[in-house]
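input
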Amino acid sequence: MKLQPVILCGGSGTRLWPLSREQYPKQLLALTGKETMLQATARRIDASLAGTGTQVLAPIVVGNEDYRFITAEQLRQVGVTPAAVVLEPVGRNTAPALALAALAALEAGDDPVLVVMPADHIINDVKAFRAAVARAATYAEADKLVTFGIRPTCAETGYGYICAGAALAGPGGGRMIHAFVEKPDASTAERYLASGEYLWNAGIFVMRASVWLERLGALRPEIVAACRAAFGARSSDRDFLRVGREAFAACPADSIDYAVMEKLATGDGVVIPFAAGWSDVGAWDALWQIDGKDSDGNVLRGDVMAVNTRDTLAISQSRLVACVGLVDAVVVETPDAVLVAHKSRMQQVKEVVARLKREGRTEADAHRKIYRPWGYYDSIDAGNRFQVKRIVVNPGAALSLQMHHHRAEHWIVVRGTARVTRGEETFLVSENESTYIPLGTRHRLENPGKVPLEMIEVQSGAYLGEDDIVRYEDTYGRS
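output
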């Protein structure tokens, strides 16, 4: 048997604003440790599952092309080389994303058992999770579609539920799926908890690639047709697989649950109950619930000082945050935005994001620090006709050969050595040296050294937007 991990990297996590942004969603964040949620997911299925006759394959990642480079970089940092990174030109929910992954898995010539995991979940007991996957795989080999149900620890109203039916024979511990139910109100959630028959819907699935395509094709043939057309029009872009934009844009959007799982005939769907410290971290109060607390029930991250404060989550990224007399609060500080809210109001954070978007504010989309395939830049200061950035270029990396219509740039190297192309000349700029790029001049910045290149860039001109870039050559295929 071959196990094929599939990591779904969709979703924006707007309830975790201001850490999660549209261009830097929550799976790229390190919320409970040093690893990001994506990195922890990629390492969740490993060779420890490879018993007799079982092979664990490199993961297939399906995600948004807007953050493809940071996704690839985070995987590289933990030593994970994916079998494929499939780029969705537009979001179409999880059912089409899984169809693309299944087609990519079958392209290798085998029919592996897919282990489908969202990239933005936390599972503290990885050993218990791997044991549950091994049990689920035995059902998937028999052409069952398997999902995971978390044994509830409270009457949670923020999750969907699965009503578990009769126990199946054998050592797998699986139960038939009786019904999927939507997020309940408080009294219904209490009844579900008391009955012992309802499980939280974890959104994790195990199934053969061919079985998923067959069942999806029977229930939503238009999705499979669109995904086959998009996959047939695929092209390679460096380490990424781009599917056909026009064909995928025409694909209907639907989730795995709605498209297939809720419509399965009795006996075709199996739920594996397990307890493994799982959370989808859908909002800040969920992070407070699962994280380690001090003696006052507080979760404090970064430079935080708490006085007469209890049951509060406080996160600081760039400065001292002092909390005095707070109870059941959430305080999240980033360099460009601060959230202060009561824990009971976490579902309303998305309303802040919606308002920011309506007003055209950049805080909804991106952080002050912007990651690029060559490194990152941090917008330190800005004013009338000027902007200051701190730029870090990775060893061996290079920005595109480019030109600006509306701005000139002054570069000061503070660490490392820069190779600069300016017009027809190419030269080196070392630490404590600077150079000037006149408006309208073709230029390129490279790091030929072995350490990160750090520099300060001062832009001046009538328009300083990031769309004032004309690219002539680019290592990373950006237009």
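quick obs: The chain has a mean pLDDT of 93.
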